[in-house]
Amino acid sequence: MIQNTGSGTITLDPAGADLLDGSTSLPLLPGRALLLICTGSGWAGLALQAGSGAVGAADGSAAAPGLGFALDSDTGIFRPAANQLGFAAGGVPRAVLSAAGLQLDVPLTGTAVSESALDTTAGRLARVGYAGLGLTGNGIGAPGNDANLCLSTAFNYRFSTSGINCPISNPYGGSLHVFRGVGGDVASYRLQQ
Q1: Greatest CA separation for the chain
Q2: Which residues lie below 8 Å from residue 129, measured CB to CB, with a gap of 6+?
Q3: Where are the strands (E) in the chain, listed by range?
Q4: Which sequence spans correspond to the domains of the chain?
Q5: Is the overall model pTM greater than 0.90, yes or no?
Q6: What does residue 118 show for φ and ψ, rounded to 5 degrees?
Q7: Dihedral (C-alpha) 46, 51, 53, 56: value to the nearest 10 degrees?
Q8: Residue 98 Cα distances to 84, 130, 190, angstroms
Q9: In angstroms, rounded to a whole number, what is the distance separating the alpha carbons of residues 135 and 154?
Q10: What is the pLDDT along the chain (193 residues), one digit of tens a residue?
Q11: Are 128 and 136 in contact (CB under 8 A)?
């Protein structure tokens, strides 16, 4: 371990010496310590904040993260820009966290995501095409005439001009979009012509 106790920056730049990779220079900022690590084909440095235990690492990139793994060098954490934290897998940026939000560039799966159009588990993210209490995109069926025949949790129901049991009169035909609550009670509906 090398430590800089001075006020200037020390740069390890061996210029082709046998002990360090001549094409690599490692800056050592004031008040920091540097742990040299042999990678088998060269040297890498892990900068340590003296006394605080904080880790300083190179910014890196998605292809070569600053914090990665010896046997999977294109997977890890990198710094895409100031105040941003990036996560890479297979050399591709998969997520970037910043003060503005979290950008995900992968499909969402797992227990935090709705598993089907009928999934009503609280706290889960809804996938595209899912509408809460179970609208499955079943479209508008053939015209019927009795709103009480609508028994599913959510649906589109098309009426003929002689529709009965409608919440409002509908002499011209149209469609009724219904969402039902847990006990089967109508939670909301919309009639359009």
Answers
A1: 93
A2: 117, 137
A3: 2-3, 10-12, 26-28, 32-38, 43-49, 55-56, 67-69, 72-78, 84-89, 92-98, 101-104, 144-146, 154-164, 174-180, 186-192
A4: 1-56, 59-106, 144-192
A5: no
A6: -100, 5
A7: -40
A8: 5, 28, 40
A9: 5
A10: 566 666 766 666 555 444 444 445 556 666 666 677 766 666 666 665 555 556 678 899 999 999 998 889 999 999 999 999 999 999 999 999 999 999 999 887 778 887 776 677 777 777 765 654 444 444 444 445 555 555 554 455 555 555 555 555 555 555 555 555 555 555 555 555 5
A11: no
Task: Determine the residue type at 131.
Answer: A
Q: What are the tokens at 34?
A: 């540097």
| Residue position matching structure tokens 């995501």 | 113
Quote the tokens at residue 172: 């011209």
> What does the block give as tokens for 67?
């914090």
